[in-house]
Specification:
With 201 residues, the protein is mostly helical. It contains ten helices and no strands. The longest helix has 26 residues.
Amino acid sequence: MRVSRTQAAENRETVIDVASRLFRKHGFDGIGLKDLMKGAGLTQGAFYKQFASKEDLEALASRRALEHASRRWSDAAAKNPKDPLGAVIEFYLSAGHREERMDGCPVVALGSDAARQGSDVKASFEAGIREYLELLDGWVGDAHGEDPDGKAMAVLSTMVGAVVLSRAVNDKQLSKQFLQAAAESVLQRSSSSNAQEEPPL
């Protein structure tokens, strides 16, 4: 039975969505096409009608995952406009996010995998990371939105590294301490930065 163009387009989007979650759970090399397509409710044969290669899907799924992650940051910030960075820290450096293997930050879940992939996958990650930095720059940069000292980069590195470390250990207390220490460090960096920007009375 032939699939309509509309249905084929919907199937393609479904595969990208499912792959964005399954790659985060298993890694790029931890799941094959058969299981990816099964997760999307389709056969492996349908894959080659939709995508040029698995790497093509990896790049598209990475982009989708990072777009979703950036929206989560923006949504959290919008709910607390007086303290957008604090709102993002509250969910990102939390035990809940640590356990979100399929829906959490793709840089945490797949960053080391992406480093071993081709240029298309890296391009997806670079675009997503730049989006993270742009958001952070507005919250920790100077009054003109510029970040000459790399504050946004330092904050992102701290946050991503903390979640990676918190997932890598068995000791729940140690895991929690990584998240707490990172949150305190980021908030301290942000508050000291804001204090320097405030004009004297």
